[in-house]
Amino acid sequence: MTVVTPKKPVAIHFGAGNIGRGFIGAVLAHAGFHVVFVDVQKNIIDALNEEGGYDLHILNNGSHTERVEDVSGVLSTDLETIENVAKEPVSIITTAVGASVLPKLAKPFAQIVKTRMADKRGPINIVACENLQHATDLLKKEIEKELNDEERSYMDENIGFAVCAVDRIVPPFKGEHILDVGVEPFFEWTVDVNSLKKTDPDVHIKGMHTTDNLDAYVQRKLFTLNCGHAITSYLGFLSHKSTILDAINTPSIHSAVSQALRESGAALVRKHAIFNETDHQRYIDTTLHRFTNPHMHDEVARVGREPMRKLKRGDRLLGPIEMCREFDLPRDGLLTGVAAALLFAPEGGEDKEAKELQESVKQKGLNDVLLELTGWKDGDEDLDKIIREYEGLKGKSQNSRL
Ligand SMILES: NC(=O)c1ccc[n+]([C@@H]2O[C@H](COP(=O)([O-])OP(=O)(O)OC[C@H]3O[C@@H](n4cnc5c(N)ncnc54)[C@H](O)[C@@H]3O)[C@@H](O)[C@H]2O)c1
Ligand SMILES: O=P(O)(O)OC[C@@H](O)[C@@H](O)[C@H](O)[C@H](O)CO
What ipTM score was computed for the predicted complex, to two decimals? Predict the structure, then answer.
């Protein structure tokens, strides 16, 4: 497969899905890069090469379309073409494939590192845009496993691995063309300035903000937007709602999610000096407002997907709870979120993690599953609260009333 590489700086983006086409790829293309998307879906890659662009539908009251131009695609298994692209004037490589897929990218990334070393190429930056704290560090560790000592030292010197927070709601979208993508107007991409290397070409990327307080911004986004989103989806599922819009428009769910976000917010403000109560409450209000966009069709099944990943320590549910425990702050709303996540069992069985979680609760019992997930001691007050909430929610859901 050949890729058209015009005389322009090149950005490589792994994952031509919703956030890839709908956000990061679009920001990079608008910043003046030729964007090479790498994906496993042949129909998407073929369409990118045939069209060389796609439509971005901005969904709000004044919905409109923006054209993203100057893009092409490569299959992630086509290491030969990836090698050729790596010789172009690349300055940034990004990913949006899903946290669990990151290890699978080690081989193509290692190929890029080896090629650039052999070709004596200068510095580039790699930014993993996934909903996971320290996603880029995880990717780096996986790439290191594919390299020898000399290649690893070239990588340390020449490749900046920058962690980021990435925020734009981009659900699957049915347009006229397979590449069409529908997005909310809001977007925020914040990258760790301390890890970025100076590249040649050195392109200013409008739409990519940098900060030296990255952990704070990642936690703010994950423990607010993703935390609220997850709880809305799990309570929505239990109330038999199919979309985030229907769920958040249910007063009891809106109030439960608001409570959880007030709790995570109190912990975030306490933990990070750069946040204050007033601004953070505004951030929460904006977040909740984004969930009520009537032009977006976002399924609770998408937002709640992979509940075991979302129930990991440090992620959107246990992360803010751990922070509340650290400062002895109220956390009942967040504990309800965990109880609801443990009851997430969407029909169809496509969500393997949801199935596995239900199986696990059935086999080991809720108490033992929670001990494993949380690392708390038997008889922990929060653990007992989750169990009580779980039983209450289960009963209410079965009666179809929440
Ligand atoms: N959609 C959103 O609203 C949103 C917003 C912020 C962050 N994110 C994060 O972005 C990531 C992607 O989410 P998404 O919603 O775009 O998912 P998606 O499923 O729409 O896109 C993922 C893409 O990765 C591709 N892929 C899978 N394996 C691959 C591989 N080995 N090599 C190359 N490509 C591969 C898939 O084919 C797909 O096109 C996730 O980590 C998600 O948490 C999503
Ligand atoms: O992508 P996930 O599964 O980690 O989380 C689901 C949604 O909360 C998420 O995709 C949001 O839409 C996104 O993080 C908004 O920036």
Answer: 0.99
